[in-house]
Structure formats: C-alpha cells, structure tokens
Amino acid sequence: MRDLLNRLRLPVIAAPMFLVSGPELVIAAGRAGIIGAFPTQNCRTADELDRWLATITDELTVDGETLPWAVNLVTHRTNTRLADDLALVQRYRPPLVVTALGSPKPVLDAVHAYGGAVIADVADLPMARKAADAGADGLACISAGAGGHTGALSPFAFTTAVREFFDGLLIIGGGISDGFGIAGAIAAGADLVYLGTRFLAATESLAVGDYKQMVVDSDIDDLIVSAGITGTPASWLRPSLVANGLDPDALDGSHRDRNYQAGDDAVRRWKDLWAAGQGLGTVTAITPVEKIVTDLALQYQLAAARLDNHRSLEGSTHA
C-alpha cells in the first residue's frame, strides 16, 4: 500500500459519486496524479461495466504499469449484480476496491487473490470496528460535511478515534475540498482524503450541465441535510429540491428510497435531486480535473510551508 501512496502527486481519491463518476473522471484523475473511483452502479448492465473497466485499464496502463484507481461495490444483499460485478473486478484488477452499504467480507477473498486492497466505507465507529474485524485493508470514514449520504462525526475526531484501534489504510472525507484541508487531514492521521464535491463540476464528470452550474453558483448556505428523501441523512442542494417542487424545510419522507439499483425509479430521484457537500464554496468554475489537482497541489504545498514556518518560529522562541 505504501508503494501505491508514494506514486501519487497528492494523497487524494476523487470519491466514487453515484451518477457522477465515470471513466473520463477516473482516467483524468489517474493521469493527474490522484486516485479516481466510480460506483459499479453507475453502469446499467454488466456489459457496460465491462466496457468501462476495459477503457479505464487501457488508458491508465503506462509502460506496462497501471496507475492507481478504484472501483466501488455495493455489498448489501439487495445488490443482485454483486457476483457479476465482482467477476469483472477480478478480471480487470483495480488496485483498490471500496465497499459500501454492507460488510466487506463478500469481496475480500476475490480481491486479495489478485493482490488488490479492500476499503470499507464507514459512517460511524461501530461500522468502523465491524469492518476492521471483518478484515478490511482500509477504512473510508465518511464524516460530517460529506455530500450525498453523510456522516455525523467531525473528520478530525473520526480520524483520531479510528486510529485508536486501526493501523490500516485510513481515508477521511467530509467537507474537505482544498489543499489546506487535505494537509490537515494527513497531519491528523489519515493516509488519503476523499474529495467528492470538488470534482462535481469537473469537465470530465457525468453531472449534467445544470447540476455543474448549480454547484458553481451555490455556497454552503444552499445545503440542507435531511433524511426525508432516502431515509438516511443526506446533504442536498436546496435549489434542486425547490426546482422539483419540494419544500426543503418540510420534507415528509414520501420520497424515501435508498435503493441504488440502476433503472429503478429511485435513480430518477438522484438524477433530479442533486447532492453536494460542505466544500461547495471552493468550486467557482467548471474546470478540467488536471486544473483542479494543480490548484490543490499548490494549496497543499502552501499548507506544508505554513507548518514548516510554524516549527521554525517555535524553535526560535524556545532557543
């Protein structure tokens, strides 16, 4: 795993976003020096997933070596496609497999057999302990401020608490959308940082134009966290709810459905009702992934310089 981290320009994963992350985003992320990821549920069929995986593998293989990338599998028992999707994962061998909405156990043996690592999405400490006990190689801690289905814990508090019992790969996400936040998360004990909202308006994302523009035009005050749509707390863009005839302050839960199965009516809700996280204000234009990563890298370097300067000042004070 250390070898994988050492190959990155920045310790960042472009988080796998439902109906937003696709091959173009994953490829652009890998070429820019971070890890791109996508949920297999963004593909309607196994054949489409086969094509996506083949494209990503081909485009991210340089001189016989594959740049880091990740795929996200829903391991909940309601995912009737898990076996087929996992078979394709075994064929194309993404270095990282992220599990969501269930235990990582169903995919551990298959992914470990080809040398990959399994990362479990977790939103609280009980989930984190269960995933660690199940044998996950890493934990992706979804914290307060994340877009879509969100957590309740501070990213820093979550990191500290998990590090008390887990020394594997730790990914933290939630409200982090610039290089300064990335540096802070790494300093706090994370190995990688999930950034989702920062890439919503990327040129290469699958988000429709109006969604991207709403992300650019909105800020943190335009968000609402509610369980009224899916039954689970999620962070939504208020303007998208209003545009669909919903009162963000009076959601009665009549639209609840967390199912991610492609083709279901639930997908229509996620297409029309748009999610974003608290890093919203940093997105000021629709730009390519390469430009986003370059900006993040500059901020990350400035953050490191701040720490170095602080240490220098502290040293001179105690001299």
UniProtKB/TrEMBL annotation:
Protein name, per record: Nitronate monooxygenase family protein
UniProt-listed Pfam families: NMO
PANTHER family: BLR1330 PROTEIN, NITRONATE MONOOXYGENASE-RELATED
Keyword Magnesium: no
Family note: Belongs to the nitronate monooxygenase family. NMO class I subfamily.
Top-level taxon in the UniProt lineage: Bacteria
GO MF, one annotated term: monooxygenase activity
UniProt keyword terms in alphabetical order: Flavoprotein, FMN, Monooxygenase, Oxidoreductase
